Amino acid sequence: MFFNFKKSAAKTIKLSFKYKVHSLPFLHIQRYSYVNVYMKWKKDSYYDSIEHIHESIQLKPIIALKNCIVRDPNGCIPISAVSKRGLEFDVPMTMKVARFMRQYPSIFEEYTGPKYNLPWFRLTPEAAELDRDEKRVYEECRENLRSRLRKMILMTRENVLPLKIIQGMQWYLGLPNDFLQHSEQNLDESFRFVEMEDGLKGLALDSGEKIYSVMEKNAMKSGLYTGGPMEAIEFPFFPSKGLRLRRKIENWLHEFQKLPYISPYDDFSNLDPNSDMAEKRLVGFLHELLSLFVEHSAERKKLFCLKKYFGLPQKVHKAFERHPHVFYLTFRNKTCTVILKEAHSNKSAIEKHPLLRVRKKYIKLMKESEVILRNRRVNNRFSNCNAKLDLDSNDLDERGREMASCSLEQVM
């Protein structure tokens, strides 16, 4: 993990915001100061053991296949309906869809279909009940979900986001997969569909009243922030056990915390991209984005597609490495996942996503498949042993009869 900071370079610029402020125009000196420093990544067993984060990767294709079954009028599908769509459902490329579904008998019930003896699948009663619970959450928390989407769009450069980007973020935002298809009931009049460059279709919003970020709201509650421009807000730090930063890094972070906080919802076009203030704005953006997600985490590679529309630097991933007290990188499941530490270390600081409870139930049900498969293996071994014993006893009986007949022949 490297810290690539240039030596001091100062510029004086004028900052402007999307929202009007009632103070005089202000000036601020932006600096970017530090030297190249190497810091070793430190493993943290607490964040590596948060189950619903690491099981989310396996849960995503399960939910996609579940939705495919639910959409069928009969509530059941033949394997041929999904066998060639593994990539669409995010099923691991090394595994066939049928094999993947058979790994979760607590969710998918397999039976022989009415024609050609093909395998068919339907939901177990427990999975069907969870699906109904999930639909209730979508219905009751529609405004909450809409608000999360609104905030994400308002953090973009031009308050517009391509539909394909929104669809790629639906899992993290907790939106149902058909959210955009039913725009009349899921979106209000503040949203509008627009044509973007390169023939892309997008979803746009008009910037209305000022939106406060999670950082600003928490600072206001603590009396450390009044809502004015260029006020400093310090990021809450959650150091991992055994993580020691070099003195130069600690000194830089100390000065970094004193810099003005720039909301991810405010205009940043006049920020020097090579300044510490731009770095603080970037950390604030990533903090706010992860706070909107269901697990307050995301695969790092999934965030790279946001660079263009959110004005992120090319090496945005370096921000996660330079701020190990704010973010944690876990490498489980053969991928790199970014975790917002505050959401899992201070449970009252960030609002829980309404869908998190349902996903945890799905993961618990998913885990029951391991017990079912284990019992099946034990029963199969027991059945094989009984069959072998029967064969052995039959062989003994035949040998006994042969020996008896041979004895009688000798006597004769």
SSE pattern: EEEEHHHEHEEHHEHHEEHHHEHHHEEHH
Measured between the Cα atoms of the first and last residue, the distance is 93 Å
Rg, alpha carbons: 29 Å
Strand content: 5-15%
Class per helix and strand makeup: alpha+beta
Would you mind describing this structure in some detail?
- Residues 1-28 have low confidence and may be disordered.
- A hairpin with a 6-residue loop joins strand 12 (327-330) and strand 13 (337-340).
- The chain has a 3-stranded antiparallel β-sheet with strand order 5-7-6. A 3-stranded antiparallel β-sheet has the order 8-10-9. Strands 11-13-12 form a 3-stranded antiparallel β-sheet.
- It is an alpha+beta fold and 412 residues long.
- The radius of gyration is 29 Å and the shape is globular.
- The protein is built from 16 helices and 13 strands.
- Helix 5 runs antiparallel to helix 16 (356-411).
- The chain has helices at residues 45-48, 51-54, 56-71, 97-102, 125-140, 142-154, 163-173, 183-186, 214-221, 247-257, 276-292, 300-303, 307-310, 317-322, 341-345, 356-411; strands at residues 2-3, 11-14, 27-30, 37-38, 76-78, 108-112, 119-123, 160-162, 191-195, 201-205, 297-299, 327-330, 337-340.
